[in-house]
Amino acid sequence: MRTIYVLYANKPGNPDYLEDIITETTDLKHLEAAKKWAADNGFISLRIHKFRYSQNDFNNMTSAFAGGVVRN
What is the CB neighbour count within 10 angstroms for residue 38? Predict the structure, then answer.
């Protein structure tokens, strides 16, 4: 199962719901570099979301949108 990391951050003064996506990656070194870049460029409230991709997750998502089920 593959893990995708999404780094969100906010600019000072912006409401919480106006987060920016800084990066999406599977590489932890890239994630650390992106966190440093965001902090160095004035972003605050850094947040990381971990998404673990699996075929079942994809099938559930596509069936919810009437896209059918993908079979291997």
Answer: 20
25-31 own/partner pairs: CB under 8 Å, 24+ apart: 26/2, 31/5, 31/7
* CB neighbour class for 69 (10 Å; exposed up to 12, middle 13-18, buried from 19): exposed
**Residue 7's beta-bridge partner residues?**
23, 48
- The list of the chain residues with pLDDT below 70 reads 57-58, 61-72
Specify the pLDDT at position 56.
Answer: 75
50-54 long-range contacts (CB < 8 A, ≥24 apart) are 50/3, 50/4, 50/5, 51/3, 51/4, 51/5, 51/6, 52/1, 52/2, 52/3, 52/4, 53/1, 53/2, 53/3, 53/4, 54/1
